[in-house]
């Protein structure tokens, strides 16, 4: 009998909610800071890890933006991305959709193209070396104004071949999706797909706004949707994917304990929920650790884990034929290992 641990390790899956700046491990941070002649405020990897004790989203974001500040050269962006992709390959992840936050870098004087080219070179290598498929999603920082987002969108127009979608992240409370209605409309006119973080710390109204004002194809997090019966019905009707991040929710105190995590209820309601890692270097676990910790806390069955793996492909931006092939692989794995 395959143990739950080995079942999770082996099952083919996709990750759809991953901030590349959040996959920046402390050891690599030291290495890159050193070669760029920059100082970090911590003496050791252990000291950094100790600082990763957050009471809310903002608390985390302050440290996360600081960490990203040592990324300067194209090679730095390549190295962070490549380290993440290698890890994903080791976890039987066949497809990833990665967020990046260009404003975190361009506001420090780093060129947009340095960021995109560094990340994209690693994405290409993962296709060539591992056969892993990838998509890139550019997020606007919602604590900044819409003008800044519009300027960022302008910069992305030369990279339509590389950037598939736009998203919305950073400090949610007080920064509703409605603030970015014009830039999302323009992005859609330019052919980008759209997603947005909503209902992580913000209320269910923000999820409604993401659906109705930003026309999103997916909701990132979406936890607080469960407060609103009508919204649940709407998400079901639209077959709207939710990219849920269990260990992130625990570390940022969106949930007090994984045993109270809403994903169990989402699955029972038939919502298209997926498991993701969000910022694995900061939250203590990559994709398989998120599956495992949540499965233990909610006592998920192999059938439920299989559904989550299938959902990850159904909710992806792969085309229908690619999705079918991936789902066939998940089903074949289940039949051999349940
Ligand atoms: N940026 C990186 N991680 C994030 C999260 N969990 N919520 C909002 N913005 C983020
Ligand atoms: Zn996120």
Structure, explained:
This protein is 52% helix and 14% strand. It has 338 residues and is α/β, with parallel strands linked by helices. It has a single domain, classed as Metal-dependent hydrolases (TIM Barrel), CATH 3.20.20.140. The chain has an eight-stranded parallel sheet. Helix 11 links the parallel strand 6 and strand 7. Helix 5 runs parallel beside helix 7. The longest helix has 19 residues. The N and C termini lie close together (7 Å). The chain binds adenine and zinc ion. The site of zinc ion has 6 residues, from strand 1.
- Strand residues, percent: 5-15%
Based on the coordinates given, report the CATH architecture.
Alpha-Beta Barrel
Helix content: 40-55%
Structural class, from helix and strand content? Answer: alpha/beta
Query: So how many helices?
Result: 17
Low-confidence stretches: none
Structurally, the number of domains stands at 1
CATH topology: TIM Barrel
Order of helices and strands: HEHHHHEHHEHEHEHEHEHHEHHHH
As laid out across the biggest beta sheet, the strand order is 1-2-3-4-5-6-7-8
Broad CATH class:
Alpha Beta
Q: If you average the pLDDT, what whole number results? A: 98
Bound molecules: adenine, zinc ion
Q: What does the radius of gyration come to?
A: 19 Å
| Major pleated sheet | 8 strands, parallel
The first-to-last residue Cα distance is 7 Å
């Amino acid at each position: 009998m395959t143990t739950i641990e080995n079942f999770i390790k082996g099952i083919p899956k996709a990750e759809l909610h991953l901030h590349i700046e959040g996959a920046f491990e402390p050891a690599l941070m030291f290495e890159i800071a050193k070669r760029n002649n920059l100082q970090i405020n911590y003496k050791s990897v252990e000291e950094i890890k100790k600082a990763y004790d957050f009471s809310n989203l903002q608390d985390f974001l302050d440290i996360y933006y600081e960490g990203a500040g040592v990324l300067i050269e194209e090679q730095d962006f390549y190295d962070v991305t490549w380290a993440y992709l290698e890890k994903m390959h080791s976890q039987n992840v066949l497809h990833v959709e990665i967020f990046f936050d260009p404003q975190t870098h361009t506001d420090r004087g780093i060129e947009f193209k340095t960021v995109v080219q560094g990340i994209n070179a690693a994405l290409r290598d993962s296709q060539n070396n591992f056969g892993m498929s990838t998509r890139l999603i550019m997020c606007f920082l919602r604590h900044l104004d819409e003008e800044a987002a519009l300027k960022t969108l302008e910069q992305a127009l030369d990279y339509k071949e590389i950037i598939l979608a736009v998203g919305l992240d950073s400090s949610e409370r007080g920064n509703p999706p409605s603030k970015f209605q014009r830039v999302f409309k323009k992005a859609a006119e330019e052919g980008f797909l759209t997603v947005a973080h909503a209902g992580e710390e913000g209320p269910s109204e923000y999820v409604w706004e993401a659906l109705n004002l930003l026309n999103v194809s997916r909701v990132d997090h979406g936890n607080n949707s469960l407060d609103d019966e009508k919204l649940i019905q709407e998400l079901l009707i639209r077959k709207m994917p939710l990219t849920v991040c269990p260990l992130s929710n625990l570390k940022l105190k969106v949930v007090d304990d994984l045993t109270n995590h809403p994903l169990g209820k989402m699955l029972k309601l038939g919502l298209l929920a997926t498991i993701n890692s969000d910022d694995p270097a900061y939250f203590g676990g990559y994709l398989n650790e998120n599956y495992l910790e949540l499965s233990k806390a909610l006592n998920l069955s192999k059938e439920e884990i299989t559904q989550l793996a299938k959902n990850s492909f159904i909710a992806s931006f792969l085309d229908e034929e690619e999705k079918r092939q991936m789902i066939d692989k998940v089903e074949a794995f289940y039949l051999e290992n349940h």
